[in-house]
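We give the chain.
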Amino acid sequence: MKSKAVRMYGMDDLRLEEFELPEIKDDEILVKVISDSICMSTYKLVKQGKNHKRAPQNIDTNPIIIGHEFAGDIVKVGSKWESQFKPGQKFALQPALNYKGSLASPGYSYEFFGGACTYCIIPQEVMELGCLLNYDGESYFQASLGEPMSCIIGGYHANYHTNKQNYNHAMGTKAGGNILIMGGCGPMGLGAVSYGLYTQNKPKRIVVTDISDDRIQRAREVISETAASEKGIELIYANTAAMENPIEDLMKLTDGHGYDDVFVYVPIKQVAEMGDTLLAFDGCMNFFAGPTDNQFKAEINLYNTHYTSTHLLGTTGGNTDDLVEAIDLSSKGLIEPAVMVTHVGGIDSIAEATLNLPKIPGGKKLTYTQFNMPLTALEDFEELGKTDPLFKKLSESCKAHKGLWNGEAERILFEHFGA
């Protein structure tokens, strides 16, 4: 059957084109992709082309389908998996396969397996690893955003704290502690704030920094200090660019204690060094941001590592348990992945949006692959709605949901485009 997909042929070479999919094998599954959110990791892939560690060297003749944050419907199941999966099931996907030591991953490495398409073929290793998950949620976009949320959740679980009695590591962020999310008003940072308000190791305080008043204002609108207070957590947004002495001022917010858990969400040397300086005794800093420079470095205070037990780690991706947790919490309304979304578009918008991702303001770019639609900011819906009935409906739906993308808005799009 035919599929339409955004495929990468090399560095900065993305093409939306139609092609023939092969017939699935007995150990494969054919799926219809509905939603695919665009990840900064895909931008990094496109900027590196064949130089990316996950990219095959023959992409100029056998292009790969980009996109790895996707969800949809199962269409056809190979005989090997008929007892586990059925046509018509919704699915979510964990793309971090790590199959037998291979770096191959959907959206980076496969000719017929990726998210920026109408249909694709899921290979047997995905099912073997348990990375194809049944999804019972109402909205496809929440399953797409389950992948980035699983990365965030994985970061929370990977942090650790120590003790001098038995040297055992207590995994996770510190209960009753201070969390600092640096560069936290972007899409992933807001996801981290949303999860931080739920996490079982309930913190006393979450401080979120940024250098943009506009981003901080939007963050306040979607996750308010009042909403956090109702959960018994003090939430503080801070513009470090407006501070005369950011380290001193951020330390004062903890009454001089420092931060038990620091998450660095931007790959900036000065930010990482500031985070290290702000660590409390036994504080753990998670360098979450993925730099494009493979020689990226920052200075870490090893005196504090020695005497005050500070420690540093980095996380990338999440595991299947993290994805299951993300989908479960999202479907129950306990976390709101929608805080990440600022733009919505169709399959025809993916290539240009990916190539220009750092230049497009806002957060997550959510796309629907079964129809064409220009990439459109949610904040533009109201103005567009003055002349376009579709955007009028979308604007009204988002306003009724704290300005966030939501299941009702998704259904409005599906009805309009007959998807």
About this structure: The mean pLDDT is 95. Residues 146-158 form the longest helix (13 residues). The CA atoms of residues 99 and 125 lie 7 Å apart. DSSP finds 15 helices and 19 strands in the chain.
